[in-house]
Design brief:
This protein is of the alpha/beta class. Among the domains are: about 80 residues, no CATH class; about 90 residues, no CATH class. The strands form two sheets. The chain has an eight-stranded mixed β-sheet with strand order 6-7-8-3-9-10-12-11, with helices on both faces. Strands 2-1-4-5 form a four-stranded antiparallel β-sheet, covered by helices on one side. The protein binds iron/sulfur cluster. Iron/sulfur cluster binds next to loops.
Length: about 350
């Protein structure tokens, strides 16, 4: 039987007390998400394995179409479309999220697992004042008066650096800049103090200064409340800033997973090497142009046989065309899905001498 999601303050406080637990708060095992379309079945996520502990940040990196966002949206039940087939396990604090009824999922979403997106306009209702939307979110999950919820909203807007929050609380989303709107979304997360925050490219549309401020706010949420953060991005710089552990996704699969330091000093996957070569280095002369990974991500309807990266891989071998590599441990805590000899790929990874050593 699916356990009732604890959503009272007591339950939330009790669950946060265990923030030092070493076990995963959110664990995804063998997740598969397929969508039937007129052109064929889209294999958006194919056997993904991820986990994150309280107070930790998992960075999920990969190109568009790698399955990062679909995985995240599936965690909070946003891919339950009639044409979707979802299998595998998503366990959050002992709750089976895949089979959680919609009415219980709504109580988990927002209060215990919050998600912020690249474009806050997709989450904020354009016709309602931003303050009202936060007040409503508080009152959906807690029995508090409107005046108390409003006072907490003003405080949260102040905490995320919105000037004159007493006035801004009555602004409509279109009256705020992109950075301000993202702050509003983080303020909403601050007032609800979720156990897990999933941030899907939250800074991609923002300039560098605002990006740093938003990352700082997310870091605070993690440090002050023990929130587990899943940071989805294509930007390795963001990963280097924030992540404790990194998962590299490609074609709906997790193909490399390692603690941040390990990934940046000894990456073992040709795809990860390609991602790293495509970012500028501070410790080397500026090249005329950066390397990019040749070719395009594969169609998720017609995936190539064998390793899905083989059409783009400079190290491709015969076996790569026939057999998909398993995600296997290379060193403790370092998982890699590649047919290359372990010693060889460890040497190549070390030779890269990447930026974040
Ligand atoms: Fe490249 Fe083969 Fe490794 Fe895939 S399995 S990343 S094609 S070497």
């Amino acid at each position: 039987m699916t356990p009732e999601p604890p959503d009272s303050d007591n339950a939330a406080a009790k669950s946060r007390e265990t923030s030092k637990s070493s076990s995963a708060l959110l664990e995804i095992r063998d997740l598969r998400v397929h969508f039937r379309t007129r052109d064929g079945v889209v294999h958006a996520v194919e056997g993904a394995q991820l986990s994150v502990e309280r107070g930790q940040t998992l960075g999920v990196v990969g190109e568009s179409g790698s399955g990062k966002s679909v995985t995240a949206m599936t965690v909070i039940g946003l891919t339950r479309f009639p044409n979707a087939t979802i299998s595998g396990e998503i366990e959050f604090d002992g709750i089976d999220l895949i089979n959680l009824p919609d009415n219980q999922m709504r109580r988990v979403r927002g209060r215990r697992i919050a998600m912020i997106f690249q474009d806050p306009l997709s989450s904020l209702h354009p016709l309602y004042k931003v303050g009202w939307q936060i007040v409503e979110a508080i009152q959906t999950h807690e029995e508090v008066s409107t005046s108390e919820a409003r006072a907490r909203t003003i405080e949260a807007l102040r905490e995320v650096g919105i000037p004159s929050p007493e006035k801004r609380i009555d602004s409509y989303p279109h009256e705020l800049s992109g950075g301000m709107r993202q702050r509003v979304m983080i303020a909403m997360a601050l007032v609800l103090k979720p156990d897990v925050l999933i941030a899907d490219e939250p800074t991609t549309a923002l300039d560098v200064t605002v990006q740093a401020q938003i990352l700082d706010l997310i870091r605070r949420l993690k440090d002050e409340y023990g929130t587990a953060v899943v940071m989805i991005t294509h930007d390795l710089g963001v990963i280097a800033e924030l992540a404790d552990e990194v998962a590299v996704m490609y074609a709906g699969r997790v193909m490399e997973k390692a603690p941040r330091e390990v990934l940046f000093t000894s990456p073992e996957l040709p795809y990860t090497w390609g991602l790293m070569r495509s970012i500028p280095r501070l410790d080397a002369p500026r090249p005329d142009r950066l390397d990019s990974i040749s070719g395009l991500p594969p169609s998720l309807i017609n995936l190539p046989p064998g390793c899905p990266f083989h059409p783009r891989c400079p190290y491709v071998m015969d076996v790569c065309l026939k057999k998909e590599p398993e995600l296997k441990q290379s060193e403790p805590g370092h998982l890699v899905s590649c047919h290359l000899d372990v010693k060889e790929r460890q040497q190549i990874g070390r030779d890269l001498q990447t930026l974040y050593r």
